[in-house]
Amino acid sequence: MSDVRIDDLPVRDELRGKSPYGAPQLDVPVRLNTNENPYPLPEPLVERITERVREAARSLNRYPDRDAVQLRTELAKYLTETGGHPLGFENVWAANGSNEVIQQLLQTFGGPGRTAIGFEPSYSMHALIARGTGTGWIPGPRNENFAIDPDAARRAIAEHKPDVVFITTPNNPTGNAVPPETVLALYEAAQAAKPSMVVVDEAYIEFSHGDSLLPLLQGRPHLVISRTMSKAFGAAGLRLGYLAADPAVVDAVQLVRLPYHLSAITQATALAALEHTDTLLGYVQQLKAERDRLVAELRATGYEVTESDANFVQFGRFENAHEAWQKILDRGVLVRDNGVPGWLRVTAGTPEENDAFLDAVRELKKEL
Ligand code: PMP
C-alpha cells in the first residue's frame, strides 16, 4: 500500500478534493440502481456475437476501421426506421458509450475558457465530463416538479451565453421527458445568445411514451442527439454510444477522437446486436409495462412519483432519503440515492425483481 494521496500529486487544481463517479456496485440479490436492462442478451444473439467476434479476431493484428463506417451505417438505419427522420452514416458518430460521445463533444465545443449548462437535477456526468475537459459548468434551473421552465431556462441561457446546452430527455434521475416545444425554445435561445451547440441526451428515449426529437435535426446544424446501446439494447457492458447530427458535427468531433478509439471487437459486437434489434425492442415493451406498474403500485402505496418516460422511476418523498435507501438495501434491494433531497430512484427490473422492490417499500411505508 502507498501512503501517497491524490492531493500529494501535482493534479490539476479543479480535480483536488473531488470524488469520481461512483454508483455503488454492491453484491445484493436485487440490483435496481444503475438503469441497466435486467434481461441478459438472448442466446441466439450471444451466438451471433461469438461468430462476429471470432471473425474479427482473425484480423486483430490490424487496426480497426477508424471511421466505423459499417457500424455507423447500421446505426443510421436503426435511427431512420425508428426515429421518423432519414439519416445516413455521415450523420452518425459512435464511441465507447455515450459518455465518450459527450466527452468528445465537450472537447470539440467546450474546453478551457468555455462553458456548458445543464438543468439540474440531471445526469451528473455532464458536469463531471465538463470538469474533466476544462469546461466551466453552469447549473441551470428546473421547477419544483422537475420540469424545465422554458422562461427561466431561456433567461439562464441569455445571461450565461454557454457554449454547450445539455437537455436530457427523458431526464435522469427524475424520469420526466422535456416537451419538444421547450427544446425548440431553448435551441432558439442558444442561437440568439451565442450561437451554441445544443446536445439532447436521449439515452432513455426508447422507453418514452413520446417520440424521439430526431426530426428536429432538419435545418438545425447546432443540434446534436446522443444515444446509447446501454439501455434499450441491453448492452451496458458493450460500451457503445452514438450521436446523430449534421455531417459537419461528425467531422468536427473527429478532430478530437483518438485514432481507432472503437475496437474491432466493439464494432463486431454492436453490429451483431443491431441484427437483433426487433427482439431487443420487445424487451423494451415489457420494461415499459413494468415501469408503468411500478408507478401505479408506488402511488397506490402512498408514495409520490415523478412522471416517468424512462426505464426507472423517481419516488419519495422521504424526510431522510439516505436512511430510506439504507432500509430498502437492508431488505436486499439496491436502489439509487442520487442526492436529490427527499427522493430515490428505482430502475425497472424483471417482474420478480420489481415485486421484491415493491414488497420492500410497502414494508418501509409502515415504518415511516
Ligand atoms: N446519458 C444519460 C442520461 C445516462 O443516464 C447515461 C447512463 N447512466 C449515459 C448518458 C451514459 O451511458 P453510456 O455511457 O453507458 O452510453
UniProtKB/TrEMBL annotation:
Reaction(s) this enzyme catalyzes, per UniProt: L-histidinol phosphate + 2-oxoglutarate = 3-(imidazol-4-yl)-2-oxopropyl phosphate + L-glutamate
Enzyme Commission numbers on file: 2.6.1.9
InterPro entries membership: Aminotrans_II_pyridoxalP_BS, Aminotransferase_I/II_large, HisP_aminotrans, PyrdxlP-dep_Trfase, PyrdxlP-dep_Trfase_major, PyrdxlP-dep_Trfase_small
UniProt modified residues of type N6-(pyridoxal phosphate)lysine: 231
Pathway entry: Amino-acid biosynthesis; L-histidine biosynthesis; L-histidine from 5-phospho-alpha-D-ribose 1-diphosphate: step 7/9
Keyword field contains Repeat: no
Disordered as annotated region, ranges: 1-22
Domain Aminotransferase class I/classII large: 30-360
Keywords, comma-separated and alphabetical: Amino-acid biosynthesis, Aminotransferase, Histidine biosynthesis, Pyridoxal phosphate, Transferase
Single Gene Ontology MF annotation: histidinol-phosphate transaminase activity
The protein's required cofactors: pyridoxal 5'-phosphate
Stored CDD domains: AAT_like (cd00609)
Chain intervals with Basic and acidic residues compositional bias: 1-17
Enzyme class: transferase
NCBIfam families for the chain: hisC, PRK03317.1
Family label: Belongs to the class-II pyridoxal-phosphate-dependent aminotransferase family. Histidinol-phosphate aminotransferase subfamily.
Subunit-structure text: Homodimer.
Protein name: Histidinol-phosphate aminotransferase
Organism: Streptomyces cyanogenus
Organism placement in taxonomy: Bacteria, Bacillati, Actinomycetota, Actinomycetes, Kitasatosporales
Gene designation: hisC
